[in-house]
Design goal:
- It is a single chain.
- 35% of the residues lie in helices and 25% in strands.
- By secondary structure, the protein is an alpha+beta fold.
- The strands form 7 sheets. An 8-stranded mixed barrel has the order 31-32-34-35-36-37-38-39, surrounded by 5 helices. It has a 7-stranded antiparallel beta sheet with strand order 18-17-23-22-21-19-20.
- Helix 1 packs antiparallel against helix 3.
- The longest helix has 23 residues, at 751-773.
- It is elongated.
- It starts with 32 loop residues before the first strand and ends with a helix.
Length: 942
């Protein structure tokens, strides 16, 4: 489970440190009992936990899930508590709590009040305890999580199995100086032509292996900039887009340049110099500098930074020859000539290209090899490196070490020079692990294959654990001619070891992996994480024998929605509601974990529980049982009801989630505590509703709506008083549709507001036309329209309607009796505004269920009530209904309200209503609903 967090402490935990910013919400911890040490493996684990906590965080307390139990370790005392991983109240009031998590799974909680000195728990304690707890889990291997590729801070690309670019990060585009259009949808061979070794390595990742890509000098097809040396890795990846390959690149051009310069210096005979192609001297050996004439007491003439031929060591006649040598070498090939020095000596000088692009090596010919390289110059070059760098000779002894490497190891650089590097690292306690935590032996540098690049975990002095990228590059006289696959051939040269710290990058990647598939508040999986769990379950299903699959159900997905979540959020407040959600998440995580499944928060108050191996009925029962006990919000219990929808795991992962959501939507339509079981018919209904909503959007423009009018007859005068307008939709394919078949769909969007405005406009226009046509016989003819108060509240519907009423004169307005159950000031104000614009207000369907709310008759500014058709239908044969109708009419008259009977079908019903004193009636016994033209004809006869 994932424990609760208060509002200020809901940031997702760092997957390496587990740190959060503040305190979880209070949850009581269960009673504890002493843990007997019976099982040998458990005893060893308990001992290891005690030792680690005693050494790394003696002031801290640990709460961790080990096997089927939750352990509490504090002050060297180990106790059993549980079954839920919930912090005690004391941890929530003070101190700092750290989450120990791996691959999105919460392994434990580490709490400390800082001790007497107020020190926080060290990252080392967090890392080591997390590693131990993860290793103790039977499923500790985990899986890769979703990566938000485009947001990664490094050059990253996601490729399809056909090596087509699907997503790339912004640094990737910047590295190759190329646009999105030049990458996305193109193959690697198209974007980076001429690199068969790279394509071969990527094919290995497609085949399911994590591979290190060969260093390559890359230049995109569309790029205008110079090529760059890049280094990378590729691994198979299953994410939200499906299977593919994840490629990560980094620019190592600077490293190649530095290594090339060092190699060039070690690859020359003194006197020697390293030049650019235009002849500028970058570095020179001391032997060459000392050949220049030197005045007593004067410094050696400068050589670095000037063209080689400007060196004062040459005789004037040799300047042109030196310039020609450089030009010939830059054009290709090796140039050699005898140059006269200022002192009269002859120097046979050879100029050629070095192994690094754009650099030339000038060296004397015939001078014995073996002179010492300019160590001061090389040390200065290494000091400029951004990475920890060590130069090792053929015997494995450290010859040079820069300050970053010395700082990394915590030792003065001078103490390492001349010592065997492997032995020194062992004495310092440096340990090496693979990226997945497997211990590795310290290498023997004399037999190490080079060049080499791999990532390792380095446990350094002071108990710091860092992700490092180790690069081994051969240098020396044979460096430029050694084959990549040779091993240990360093007798005539050495190795340049480069350690690049990628800890921050790996932590950023891990955090993005975590955030991409987890809900920030509860720590449960989000939709992406749930989809991955379902995909993994589907893969396991495919690997299972058909007989086993037939005997064991694949599983079910239960989706639940908190009834009235918005109102609950308003009533409790955001912080309290968040704590309630975290408690619910813990409950669901427990029930899922007990069945080998997982829980997820999809949105707001909607959760999902994946239960493998259970059919839909057992899964629903398991979730209902876990929700039967009220949740606690602070000191009080908060009973909740849920809409529950369940679906079997059929089809793809996305299909399963969609099916469960359709089922819970169906459950919500049934009221509080509703249940829904997915069937294909439910999906068909959703499709139909969606199609109907799409058709509705064009219905107004296409003039497909129409109004029918059902006259209302005054029972005392026998004359028509007005008519109720009834909406109809003449659908081009489905025919004439009644309001109940489409208004619910329209009510999910702003369509209902536009339809309501059209009904009012059309009804008022029809009223005016009838008055103009029948003004002498029906001068006060009125129409009524049905309006929903809920729709008027939405999107300022009332403020849009009132100007229309003012301009054209308000019709009579009928509101549902159920909407008057809300005795709020907002409802009273809305009805008051309608009344002030001339509308007469009637309560529709009075006398049935919610319509019998008598207090609404006195609170709101009403003019009439309309009896529910079920009452009229039982007249005159049911004496009890006759009495009820008579009493209702009498009560309404005493309150100054008119009464209209609806649903009158027979003449005897009109007679009894007239006897009871009812004011008006409508129904097929009076007149069926009519179009306006037929209504005018009907009125002309009366």
């Amino acid at each position: 489970m994932t424990p609760s967090l208060s509002k200020s402490k809901r940031a997702a935990p760092d997957p390496v440190t587990g740190k959060r910013a503040s305190h979880p919400a209070p949850i009581q911890i269960s009673a504890r009992v002493h843990v007997p040490s019976t099982d040998h493996s458990s005893s060893a684990l308990h001992t290891a936990l005690r030792d680690l906590l005693r050494v790394h965080a003696p002031e801290a307390a640990l709460l961790a899930r080990v096997g089927g139990a939750v352990l509490h370790l504090q002050n060297d005392i180990l106790e059993l508590c549980g079954p839920e991983l919930e912090p005690p109240e004391a941890w929530l009031e003070s101190g700092e709590m750290t989450w120990l998590s791996r691959d999105g799974e919460l392994l434990g909680l580490l709490w400390s009040d800082g001790g007497p000195e107020g020190r926080p728990v060290s990252p080392t304690a967090t890392e080591v305890l997390t590693m131990l707890l993860a290793a103790s889990r039977p499923d500790g291997a985990g899986r890769e999580a979703e990566v938000l590729v485009t947001q990664l801070p490094v050059a990253t690309a996601w490729l399809t199995p056909e090596l087509v670019f699907r997503r790339v990060s912004r640094p990737f585009l910047e590295l190759l100086d190329i646009s999105d259009a030049g990458v996305l949808g193109h193959t690697v061979a198209e974007v980076l032509p001429g690199h068969p070794a790279l394509l071969g390595a990527l094919q290995g990742a497609v085949a399911g292996r994590s591979v290190h890509l060969p260093d390559a000098l890359l230049s995109a097809k569309e790029a205008d900039t110079a090529p760059r040396w890049v280094r990378g890795e590729a691994r198979p990846y299953l994410g939200g887009w499906g299977a593919g390959v994840m490629v990560t690149l980094q620019d190592v051009s600077g490293e190649y340049e530095r290594a090339a310069r060092v190699s060039a210096l070690l690859d020359t005979r003194t006197p020697a110099a390293l030049l650019t192609e235009d002849g500028t001297v970058l570095h020179a050996s001391p032997g060459l500098s000392e050949l220049a004439p030197q005045m007593p007491g004067q410094p050696v003439p400068a050589l670095i930074g000037a063209p080689l031929w400007d060196w004062p060591g040459f005789d004037g006649a040799s300047v042109a020859a030196a310039r020609d040598l450089v030009r010939l070498a830059a054009a290709g090939g090796e140039a050699q000539a005898d140059l006269i020095l200022a002192g009269g000596e002859t120097l046979t000088l050879s100029v050629r290209h070095s192994a690094a692009s754009g650099l030339l090596v000038a060296e004397s010919v015939g001078v014995p090899v073996g002179g010492a390289a300019p160590l001061g110059l090389i040390t200065q070059m290494l000091s400029l490196s951004e990475d920890a760098t060590v130069l090792v000779d053929a015997a494995g002894r450290a010859q040079l070490i820069n300050e970053r490497a010395a700082l990394l190891l915590g030792v003065e650089a001078s103490r390492l020079v001349g010592l065997g590097l492997t032995r020194v690292l062992g004495e310092l306690g440096v340990k090496v692990f693979s990226p997945d935590g497997q211990p590795l032996a310290l290498p023997d540098w004399r037999t190490l294959p080079s060049p080499l690049c791999r990532e390792v975990l380095l446990a350094l002095p002071g108990h710091s654990l860092r992700h490092m990228e180790l690069r081994v590059t051969p240098v020396g006289p044979e460096a430029g001619r050694r084959e990549t696959g040779n091993r240990g051939n360093v007798q005539s040269g050495g190795l340049l070891l480069t350690l690049r710290d990628v800890t921050v990058l790996r932590r950023a990647e891990a955090k993005m992996h975590h955030d991409a598939r987890h809900d920030a508040l509860t720590g449960l999986h989000n939709r992406v994480g749930l989809r991955e769990d379902l995909a993994a379950l589907k893969k396991t299903e495919l690997e299972t024998a058909e007989v086993e699959a037939a005997e064991n159900p694949v599983g079910a997905l239960v989706c639940l929605n908190i009834d009235g979540f918005s109102a609950l959020n308003t009533a409790l407040g955001r912080v309290a509601c968040d704590r309630l959600l975290i408690g619910l998440a813990a409950r669901l995580s427990d029930v899922a974990g007990g069945k080998g499944g997982s829980a997820a928060r999809l949105e707001g108050g909607t959760f999902a529980v994946l239960l493998p191996g259970l059919d839909i009925h057992d899964a629903l029962e398991a979730v209902q049982r876990s929700l039967s006990v009220p949740l606690r919000c602070g000191p009080r219990e908060t009973p909740l009801t849920f809409a529950l929808g369940v679906a079997a795991l059929d089809g793809t992962a996305e299909d399963s989630i969609s099916n469960a959501e359709i089922a819970v939507r169906h459950a919500r339509q049934q009221g509080r505590g509703g249940l829904g079981f997915y069937t294909p018919a439910l999906r068909a209904g959703v499709r139909s509703a969606y199609a109907l909503e799409e058709d509705l959007r064009g219905a107004l423009t296409a003039r497909e709506f129409t109004l029918l009018y059902q006259p209302v007859l005054g029972l005392k005068s026998g004359k028509p008083l007005g008519a109720e307008s009834l909406l109809r939709w003449q659908h081009p394919e489905l025919g004439l549709l009644l309001p109940h078949s489409f208004l619910e769909v329209a009510g999910r969007s702003e369509l209902i507001t536009h339809i309501g405005e059209w009904v009012v406009e059309e009804a008022v226009a029809s009223r005016d036309r009838v008055r103009a046509e029948c003004g002498e016989t029906h001068p006060e003819w009125q129409v009524s329209v049905n309006l929903s108060l809920e729709e008027l509240r939405r999107s300022e519907g009332l403020s849009r309607l009132l100007p229309l009423l003012s301009a054209q004169g308000a019709p009579d307005i009928e509101v549902a009796a159920g909407s008057l159950l809300d005795h709020s000031e907002e409802t009273l104000d809305m009805l008051g505004q309608l009344r002030s614009h001339g509308a007469r207000l009637s309560v529709d369907d009075f006398g049935d269920g919610a319509g019998s709310n008598l207090s609404a008759l006195t609170r709101f500014p009403l003019d009439a009530i309309k009896l529910h058709p079920t009452l009229t239908a039982r007249l005159p044969g049911d004496p009890r209904v006759v009495t009820l109708v008579a009493s209702t009419i009498d009560l309404a008259h005493r309150l100054g309200l008119k009464v209209v009977a609806v649903g009158v079908e027979r003449s005897e019903q009109l007679d009894i209503l007239r006897e009871l004193g009812c004011d008006a009636a409508q129904g097929y016994g009076v007149c069926p609903p009519l179009p306006e033209t037929e209504l005018l004809a009907w009125l002309a006869e009366r």
